[in-house]
Write a structure and sequence with these properties.
single chain; elongated; about 950 residues; mainly beta; 22-stranded antiparallel barrel
């Protein structure tokens, strides 16, 4: 019968129309008053309309109507005439409440929400699949907020991989958490928004960007999170290529607790972490005089950390955040693996701390300012277990004593100032200033006992070393370095579907006398056919630090006057290298020095990109991008005292005749010079498909992304002829790449996140294992063989992360019913609000925000609990819950090799030099309370 109702209703309407048309029924003379409508729009402080905002209409503690604003930011409810209360909730905005009286023909409302703090500066939309429109962001940027956040992977590793895949990069998207770059991702229940910009051409950086914003104004109650992660070799598979499987365990405990110290004013978070590991994923792949050695080994390590952060809500327009983090670590039996044997092992330990401060001020509804300060200190030390002369046999084995004794202390300081101004909805200006200062104390005795290098195992057995080099002198280096940059970014929203942004950054640093480093950038975006966004961008980029602090330390140590000296002897005697040698003796003629060209300029790159973002039916999205990047003036370290012209020499030349060919004779040692002579070029084409999280199959929710990339790259790095870099211009890439991260959520069975990757082989070089041109670089190739002429095999991998449903659930006991005639406690009114809001379909995130607002504004439900003085804690939807996460790396236990030897004299020539770990399983028990 129910199925016949629409048909009967339609037939009745047709009959009534015919009767009226023929005059059979007289028109009714009474006029029925129209049903009152409550209509309006929701805007942010800049005046932009807000879509997907939660709205509730209440009478007392009962939600009469609930819904969301449409894509145009409008809402409309049919209501009976009378008194109501409207509540508007959106993440990172103050909950808006107001008493209203609904009447017929009442005017439309216009509600402008105020920001909790300035960590959120974008419009909020519930759909991750739809592009958002904001003057300060690219048109193809998207946000994830509200209930969509609960659809994301639960564990941190899977969540980060999933967000990186949505950004469309190769796992290299810039991650910004609450204004700070990098850091640990908050848990899902602490995240208010995630903004993803796949094509950001900003004066402060180019490329994909992921911005995560925590909830404001902080937690409404004290809550905690504890997780225990455990791994055991008994659950893992043996690494392919090894002959043993050592026993090892890994355990890690993480604890965090956060809540309001002063509700609505001060929130605080504490973090504790401790881990112990007997890592057994490492292996040795070597060929010794006793035969091949393929074994796994353990490297015990411990680490612990302590951190706390505070969020101060000084006013509606002013917030202050600070955090402090301290950690320490200890590693035993480290520094070995690959060709390096256990006798070269070392132990290390260290500790570090950092402090961050962020001040966010809303100067007006159109202008905000963010000031940030960061400082960090670290101490590290490494001690070899066996001190002695080192023995290196090319692509065979590395033995002898350790050569990495060191002690270092480092400090860094950073200031950042960002001013944002949006005078109208079409214009956005961003001015930024950034300054850094670093200092380092490094006592390094690396290679103070000397190292023999042999071309092959046969040469080692015959005691014919190729070279001997030894470092001596002052082992201490103290360095300071400063750099700064300033930028201006202007974005003009020409119209709703068209945007133009332009900007420039200027950088300067100590230790580099190059002061014309201006980096311009521009991007044009247009939305066509309502579903397609085309982006064109270009940028010339100077790095923030063009000449690194490590390079300057290398220059300072090797300048030949104040710090260290390196003696290099070709074809030395063994085991005493100083008895004879073709290229010099201990008198210092063969010492190596480090210098740089007089006018060392900063490297730069030119990047251009064309991308098309297509929104398909049912919220599928396809993105295609093509980019070209050219790197110019890349800094190379060249031996400018190699025998000219650097090609293979006549084998009948005597050592003295060879030395006469050196440009700086009678000095016959190495002179390594930093020069801005390198070049590189890459072209990349990528296709990305994003599956909407609303996709369901047999009641199972599916979501994810799939990306294919095609890259062609070439450079002139690692030249065998130091006088002709261009002749070694060659391909250097992995041509094909595939990445996928998708989630499967069957009903009541938890969620499964799969991460799939596949790559074609990487190019590698063939070398003779000799130094035919006596430039003391062992990278000579056979005659007629080009650089990177070989390609290794491809590989693939599948990882799986499973998150269970809640394993334990504790329901809050209902409040006892009040005595007859007594006023209903405030909590009873809140319980009624939760029940009615849930029945009305209001999402949990909006209900929780209303609860937080009620706890700060008891008058919101005064009509339901007038006169109540109950001081009991307000109810919450965030009940304690425990989940189990199982992460399986290399799910299929597929043998994965990497690194292929191209040294002809090695017994491993043409074979892999390493293997990835076999299947490993990690169990994590996570409890939130």
């Amino acid at each position: 019968m129910r199925s016949l109702r629409p048909i009967l209703s339609a037939l009745g309407a047709v009959a009534l129309f015919l009767m009226l048309a023929t005059g059979t029924v007289k028109a009714v003379q009474t006029v029925v008053p129209p049903t009152p409508k409550l209509r309006g729009t929701i805007k942010d402080p800049s005046g932009a309309l807000m879509a997907g905002v939660d709205i509730a209409i209440l009478q007392g503690a009962t939600v009469v109507k609930a819904g969301k604003t449409n894509p145009e930011g409008s809402f409309s409810f049919d209501l009976a005439a009378g008194a109501y209360k409207i509540a508007v909730a959106a993440p990172d905005f103050h909950t808006f409440t107001q008493d209203i009286r609904v009447t017929a023909n009442m005017p439309s409302l216009s509600v402008t929400l105020s920001l909790e703090g300035m960590t959120a500066v974008v419009n909020v939309t519930e759909s991750v699949e739809q592009p958002i429109l904001d003057a300060s962001l690219s048109l193809d940027a998207t946000t994830i907020s509200g209930d969509k956040i609960t659809d994301l992977p639960d564990d941190e590793e899977s969540l980060l991989a999933y967000l990186q895949s949505l950004a469309g990069g190769e796992g290299n998207a810039q991650l910004i958490i609450d204004g700070f770059e990098g850091g640990r991702i908050p848990t899902r229940d602490q995240i208010a928004q995630i903004i993803i910009e796949p094509n950001s051409f900003n004066a402060n950086g180019t490329g994909p960007r992921i911005t995560i914003v925590s909830k404001q104004p902080g937690p409404a109650r004290w809550a905690g999170n504890m997780s225990y992660r455990y791994q055991d070799s008994a659950l893992n598979a043996r690494t392919s290529g090894t002959t043993n499987k050592p026993k090892n365990r890994r355990s890690q405990v993480d604890f965090s607790y956060n809540g309001p110290v002063i509700k609505g004013k001060l929130g605080m978070t504490f973090d504790l972490s401790k881990s112990q590991s007997d890592s057994g994923d490492n292996f040795i792949r070597a060929f010794t005089p006793a035969g091949p050695l393929n074994m796994a080994y353990t490297s015990p390590s411990t680490s612990d950390s302590l951190g706390f952060s505070q969020n101060w809500y000084l006013s509606k327009k002013h917030t202050l955040a600070d955090n402090f983090y301290y950690s320490r670590n200890k590693n035993v039996n480290s520094g070995i693996g690959g060709f390096t044997l256990p006798e070269r092992a070392s132990d290390s330990k260290g500790h570090n701390w950092n402090f961050q401060l962020s001040d966010n001020l809303t100067i007006s509804s159109k202008m905000t300012n963010t000031f940030q300060f960061r400082m960090s200190h670290s101490n590290n030390a490494s001690v070899p277990r066996n001190i002695g002369v080192a023995i290196n046999v090319l692509d065979a084995f590395n033995a002898g004593g350790g050569q990495n004794q060191s002690e270092s202390r480092n400090a860094s300081y950073n200031l950042n100032e960002t001013l944002r101004w949006t005078p109208t909805a079409k214009w956005n200006f961003q001015f930024a200033f950034n300054a850094n200062h670093q200092s380092s104390y490094n006592d390094s005795k690396s290679n103070y006992m000397g190292t023999f290098t042999f071309s092959s195992l046969a040469d080692y057995l015959a005691e014919r070393p190729l070279t001997f080099n030894q470092t001596f002198g002052n082992s201490v280096a103290q360095i300071k370095q400063s750099d700064a940059n300033t930028s201006l970014q202007v974005t003009y929203r020409i119209k709703q579907a068209m945007s133009l942004s332009m900007g420039a950054q200027y950088t300067v640093q100590t230790h580099l006398k190059d002061y014309n480093n201006v980096s311009p950038t521009a991007q044009y975006q247009v939305q066509i056919k309502k579903r397609t966004i085309v982006s064109v961008g270009a940028r010339l980029t100077y790095p923030t630090v063009g000449f690194s602090m490590g390079s300057y330390e290398q220059l300072l140590r090797g300048n030949g006057t104040t710090k260290q000296f390196s003696t290099v002897i070709s074809n030395p005697t063994y085991p005493d290298p100083f008895l004879s040698g073709d290229s010099g003796t201990i008198n210092g003629l063969a010492t190596a020095r480090q210098t740089r060209v007089e006018h060392l300029t900063s490297p730069y790159s030119i990047n251009s990109q064309l991308s098309v973002n297509e929104s398909l039916p049912k919220n599928w999205r396809v993105s295609t991008s093509f980019s070209v990047t050219r790197q110019v003036h890349q800094i190379r370290n060249r031996n400018i005292n190699a025998p000219y012209p650097g090609t293979p020499l006549d084998p009948f030349l005597t050592p003295d005749e060879v030395n006469l060919l050196r440009p700086y004779y009678p000095f016959v040692g190495r002179i390594n010079q930093f020069e801005p002579v390198g070049n590189a070029l890459s072209k990349s084409l990528s296709f990305t498909i994003n599956m909407p999280s609303t996709k369901k199959f047999l009641k199972t929710m599916l979501s994810g992304s799939f990306q294919y990339g095609l890259t062609w790259a070439a450079d002139d790095n690692q030249a065998q002829n130091p006088y002709d870099f261009r002749s070694d211009w060659a391909r250097n890439d992995q041509r094909h790449r595939f990445q996928s991260s998708f989630q499967v959520r069957p009903p009541r069975l938890g969620s499964y996140t799969f991460q799939i990757s596949a790559n074609s082989g990487r190019t590698y070089n063939i070398t003779t294992g000799k130094d035919a041109n006596l430039d003391q670089n062992i990278n000579d190739r056979p005659a007629g063989v080009k650089r990177n002429s070989m390609i290794g095999p491809g590989s693939y991998n599948v990882n799986l992360s499973y998150s269970s449903p809640v394993l334990s659930f504790h329901k809050k006991k209902p409040e006892p019913a009040p005595a007859a005639g007594a006023a209903a406690p405030a909590n009873s009114a809140l319980d009624s609000l939760i029940q009615s809001a849930t029945q009305a379909g209001l999402p949990a995130s909006a209900i929780q925000q209303l609860i937080a607002q009620v706890s700060l504004q008891p008058g919101l439900l005064a009509s339901a609990g007038a006169g109540s003085t109950s001081s009991t804690k307000p109810p919450t939807l965030l009940h304690p819950q425990t989940t189990l996460n199982v992460r399986i790396s290399n799910l299929l236990n597929h043998p994965q090799s990497y690194g292929y030897s191209g040294v002809i004299t090695s017994q491993l020539f043409g074979k892999s030099t390493g293997f990835q770990a076999g299947r490993t399983i990690a169990l994590t028990l996570n409890s939130r309370f």
